[in-house]
TrEMBL record:
Name this protein carries in UniProt: YcxB-like C-terminal domain-containing protein
Origin superkingdom: Bacteria
Keywords recorded for this protein, A-Z: Membrane, Transmembrane, Transmembrane helix
InterPro entries: YcxB-like_C
Transmembrane segments: 106-134
The YcxB-like C-terminal domain, residue ranges: 23-78
Length: 136
């Protein structure tokens, strides 16, 4: 495994120019047109792999995002993941985000919101009517 792994992000709508990540024994160094930062391994908490990205959670709940498309081969991707895990980061299981509402609960919530909207409208109409009668 190389001591120094570089990945260059292509231009996107969210990043002006490009970003470069260097992953080595010191940590992950992120460089862009705005400057550069070094995130040391002891400042990182966990790593999670999704379909198109690997993200590293920092201890301050910020994230470093590594798009998988920057790796030339699957072997390079696997070596990078192993290198990161060997630094002591916890690996989160690849779980899908679950819907916290069941369909019936969601329907009840929508009915409640709609009901509050209607009550607000009725109160507003009643208030306008009282003001009109007051001015007569």
């Amino acid at each position: 495994m190389k001591d120094n792994i570089k990945s260059v992000f292509s231009k996107s709508d969210y990043i002006e120019g490009y970003q470069e990540l260097v992953i080595d024994d010191d940590g992950i160094k992120k460089s862009s047109s705005y400057g550069e930062s070094l995130y040391r391994w002891n400042f990182m908490d966990r790593v999670k792999e999704l379909d198109k990205i690997i993200y590293v959670q920092l201890k301050n709940n910020q994230y470093l995002v590594i798009p998988k498309r920057v790796f030339d081969t699957n072997e390079e991707l696997q070596n990078t993941k192993k290198f990161i895990l060997d630094k002591g980061l916890q690996s989160e299981p690849n779980t899908k985000i679950k819907n916290i509402f069941k369909p019936k609960e969601l329907l009840k919530l929508l009915i409640l919101i709609f009901g509050l909207f209607i009550l607000t409208y009725i109160f507003y109409a009643f208030f306008i009517l009282v003001l009109m009668l007051w001015k007569m």
